[in-house]
Design a protein that fits this description.
heterodimer; A: 377 residues; alpha+beta; five-stranded antiparallel beta sheet; 8 helices; 20 strands; elongated; B: 548 residues; mainly alpha
Chain lengths: 377, 548
């Protein structure tokens, strides 16, 4: 029985500053849900409100049908993994993992004889059963991470909360651990809320992602949808990179045509029917959505400023005739790299590129799935 | 959200009540006695008497002059010592460290007493020079004697502090300055000293406070050079013409002076507000050549000189002695005499007071640290501030304040064991609270949150997670508090009687009666007791991270 989390109209204040105002969110049972955003966006604050370490100044937090606003953190049946792991330094690995089992509330108490077996099960699951008698100081960062996760899962919590759990690990271990975390979550099937500022990590592990900025949720959706059809320009630029170009949309023969100041025109088939009207727009093209056309005579004119060869891909930094700068990623070819100063022609992949209103607040295309506006599932 | 009643709120109020009763009320008593005459009138007569009579006002000046001199000399002795110790691989460095701790933690007057036995009028060295060469050594009594005894006793404080500072300097800073052409003496003054400035200030304050309030040393060796702690004692308990109101007035002046110094130091420290992120500690070099030899001579010579008094006292305690005259040959006669002179009671009392006071101090320190760090509310900050009051109060003043406050009904506690313990708790509590607070601040709160989220209640988390994690920090503070309690003199001398006599007081009583053999026996037991405590502690902790 996995637990779903419903948050409605949450408010968080520190003194007179409001960090989160009127935030609503629903997280499905058994789902791996990530809060993603730049530092200071309120994601950790929200997580700690769910955990019960931050007071809640307004709104309702529900686990299934139980309101948890005033429930003691010890009684919420939550497993939490902290950024610095928070392993008890004066207890060995086994004692750390068993700690939660020995402190179960009266209705969930497990017999003493089963504590050992239960701890063993999760030590094995996290592949740290050989380390059971070690003290935390003798463990590497990755091992401490596994202990923290084993400890959190061992009590079979309703909800698993993770606060930037991988940020203290080196790059290689981070990739290894995030796969491990995803696999464990899959096999245990526990509702998980994960906080990170690393978008690649978020994409790798999450079923759904909520992108936050300034205490407001911008977009809730699958990694694929958030990347391909971002709800606004903030999401478009925060998740991956995007070239932002100003343009004008006109409806010609029932088709949306976007023209750039330099005269380049592109036809979009993906504009939502209700947005089909003449209006200024922002054209948002990811570096891989601008294609270099070395031999074309038409297309968007650009001059190469510099290039970086990264093996699989080559990055080109260019400026357009309007003076706007853009970045292009192309799969590296065996031919020589295009030299700086060369004038090139670009073609826009109109199937993939996005159009936003002039203020950048709304995507004009079809296919944007933002669960934020939907009712709880 | 309505705040639920917490057990911590109750603890806050309990501490406020305790502090009001045992700190604020006695302080107020001293202030009152200094401005209310025996007829019950308000008067500033005592203060004007103090400042208009050079005989009295000179005591503050004397204390100031000698204390500043002591502070300067300890810095001059201690900083090079710490530099050699921290930057070079000295042979026997562990030994140097242990002995210097033993020196600065010895009972406050044993050094002075032992130096009198060595260099005083009938001191062994004085007599030797007079008989053998006909040379008269200068007098050890007065300014010079106080300076020498205190400097040799307190320079290890500077050493321990500076060693901590030097260890926190990142090697890359040293390398960077070498890279930019700054090495040797220039680097020592322009880089290393600058980086250590907050610690130098902290160590200076500590030495200043200790030396300024030191009562035993000037009492024994000061003679004509009169300092104010001795004057307070004389005015309060002296043999002729005591004046309690006047003693209270001098106490108030002394508290104001130490408070001013305390705040000046705090202000000066804010000028050096930076932190070093030390990833690579400094690599110790091997001492080489003539410089290396001089380094060894300096360090071992200084330590030998500082440790000599304690060894000499232990040696004397086994010499035959009749009254004040030591005779050839060795025996246990001094210890036999000590047995008749309340030795057992002194040891029992010392141990009892020490253990009870220590338990209370640790309990209070843990609770107050928790209140201050984890429940930062105005009331708890008040507790924190109040708990620091004794830091600026010399021990003899605390003694007098307690006598004034609890000398009569309804709270007649003078002469009881309770008041001795209260005095000890008040004296040492600020230090242990500091180290407990610092320890708790360095523990991330997420560890406690992890425990809460795993289902342990608040109280259980405090007992099974917070307290054990604070353990190390508390223990290092506690052992040093234990030694300070065992060797306490200045407040005890005001409060003790025959029933509550301790080892320090027995030693002092024997010295003041001129019973040197007996005094040496008591002093030797005290010295060995503190030495054993410290060596046990140093063996267990292995750390050099000592907060004195």
């Amino acid at each position: 029985m996995s637990v779903k989390i419903n948050i409605s109209n949450a408010v968080k204040r520190y003194g007179n500053t409001t960090v989160i105002e009127n935030l609503s969110l629903s997280i499905r049972g058994g789902e791996f849900f990530t809060l993603l955003g730049p530092s200071g966006c309120g994601k950790t604050t929200l997580l700690r409100m769910i955990a019960g370490f931050n007071s809640i100044e307004g709104g309702d937090f529900y686990f299934n049908d139980t309101r948890i606003n005033d429930l003691n953190p010890a009684k919420r049946n939550i497993g939490m993994v902290f950024q610095n792991y928070a392993i008890f330094p004066h207890m060995n690995v086994r004692k750390n993992v068993e700690f939660g089992l020995k402190n179960r509330p009266a209705d969930k108490r497990i017999e003493k004889s089963r504590i050992h077996a239960q701890a063993d099960k999760f030590l094995k699951l996290m592949q740290i059963d050989q380390l059971a008698d070690r003290m935390p100081a003798q463990l590497s960062g990755g091992q401490q991470q596994r202990v923290a996760l084993a400890r959190a899962l061992c009590i079979e919590p309703d909800v698993l909360l993770m606060d930037e759990p991988l940020s203290n690990l080196d790059a290689k271990l981070r990739v290894e651990m995030r796969t491990a975390i995803k696999d464990i979550q899959n096999s245990v099937g526990i509702t998980t809320v994960y906080v990170t500022h690393d978008q690649e990590e978020a994409m790798a592990v999450s079923d759904r992602i909520a992108v936050m900025n300034g205490g407001v949720i911008q977009h809730v959706g699958t990694p694929k949808n958030i990347y391909q059809r971002p709800a606004n320009t903030f999401v478009a630029t925060f998740i991956g990179r995007s070239n932002i170009l100003e343009g004008q949309m006109t409806v010609e023969n029932g088709k949306a045509v976007v023209s750039l100041p330099t005269g380049y025109k592109a036809t979009f088939d993906t504009v939502a029917p209700e947005n089909m009207k003449d209006q200024p727009v922002i054209l948002c093209a990811r570096p891989e959505e601008l294609l270099l056309e070395p031999n074309a005579s038409d297309g968007l004119k650009a001059v190469i400023d510099s290039c970086v060869f990264l093996g699989l891909n080559t990055h080109y930094f260019v400026h357009l005739l309007s003076g706007e700068k853009a970045e292009i990623i192309q799969e590296s070819s065996i031919d020589s790299i295009i030299q700086p100063g060369t004038e090139v022609r670009l073609r826009l992949n109109t199937e993939k590129a996005n159009l936003f209103t002039k203020d950048g607040s709304r995507n004009l295309l079809t296919g944007v799935e933002n669960d934020l506006s939907k009712k709880a599932v | 959200m309505k705040r639920k009643f917490e057990v911590w709120s109750a603890i806050t109020w309990i501490f406020l009540a305790l502090f009001a009763l045992f700190l604020v009320y006695p302080m107020f008593g001293i202030l009152k006695q200094s401005v209310i005459s025996s007829e019950g009138r308000f008067t500033l007569e005592q203060f004007s008497k103090f400042f208009s009579t050079p005989y009295y006002s000179s005591t503050i000046k004397n204390s100031f002059v000698v204390t500043i001199a002591v502070t300067a000399v300890t810095l001059l002795l201690g900083i090079p010592f710490a530099y050699f110790y921290s930057f070079y691989q000295m042979k026997g460095s562990k030994f140097l460290f242990v002995v210097s701790i033993l020196c600065c933690m010895s009972a406050p007057f044993i050094g002075a007493y032992s130096w009198i036995m060595l260099l005083g009028r009938n001191g062994i060295i004085t007599v030797f020079f007079k008989d053998a060469f006909g040379i008269r050594l200068g007098s050890i009594y007065g300014f010079g004697g106080i300076l020498m005894v205190q400097a040799l006793k307190f320079f290890p404080l500077v050493f321990v502090y500076m060693n901590g500072a030097f260890k926190s300097i990142d090697n890359s800073l040293i390398e960077a300055s070498a890279n930019m052409g700054c090495t040797g003496v220039k680097r020592f003054f322009n880089v290393i000293m600058q980086l250590s400035m907050p610690t130098i200030l902290a160590a200076s304050l500590l030495v200043f406070m200790r030396a300024f309030a030191d009562f035993g040393t000037p009492l024994l060796i000061g003679e004509g050079y009169r300092t104010f702690p001795v004057e307070i004692y004389n005015q309060y308990l002296g043999e002729n013409g005591t004046d309690h109101n006047f003693a209270a007035a001098i106490s108030v002046i002394a508290i104001v002076v130490t408070a001013v110094v305390f705040f000046i130091q705090k202000w000066a420290t804010t000028k050096y507000n930076f932190s070093i992120n030390c990833l690579n500690p400094v690599q110790k070099r091997k001492p080489r050549g003539i410089g290396g030899v001089l380094m060894y001579i300096y360090c071992y010579g200084l330590i030998a000189l500082a440790f000599l008094p304690q060894l000499y006292i232990v040696y004397l305690s086994f010499r035959n002695c009749d009254g004040a005259v030591f005779k050839p040959g060795f025996s246990m006669v001094n210890y036999e005499k000590a047995m008749k002179k309340l030795l057992v009671r002194s040891i029992n009392n010392t141990m009892l007071f020490g253990v009870v006071a220590l338990v209370l101090i640790i309990l209070f320190a843990i609770l107050i640290a928790y209140l201050v760090v984890r429940r930062p509310r105005p009331l708890n900050h008040t507790i924190d501030t109040l708990s620091m009051l004794p830091y600026i109060m010399p021990g003899s003043i605390i003694g007098i304040a307690l006598v004034i406050a609890f000398g009569k009904k309804p709270l007649a506690l003078t002469g009881t064991m309770a008041i001795m313990i209260i005095a000890l708790v008040i004296r040492r509590m600020p230090y242990t609270i500091r180290s407990a607070t610092a320890t708790l601040q360095s523990i991330p709160i997420s560890t406690e949150e992890a425990s809460l989220s795993l289902g342990a209640g608040k109280l259980k988390t405090f007992l099974t997670i917070t307290t054990p994690m604070m353990g190390n920090g508390i223990m290092s503070g506690a052992v040093l508090s234990w030694v300070a309690i065992v060797t306490e003199l200045s407040s005890a001398i005001i409060l003790y009687n025959n029933k509550t006599i301790t080892l320090t007081m027995s030693t002092y009583a024997a010295i003041s009666r001129g019973n040197d053999g007996l005094a040496c026996a008591f002093a030797a037991i005290l010295t060995v007791l503190t030495a054993i405590s410290l060596i046990l502690y140093l063996a267990v902790t292995k750390s050099e991270d000592i907060k004195l």
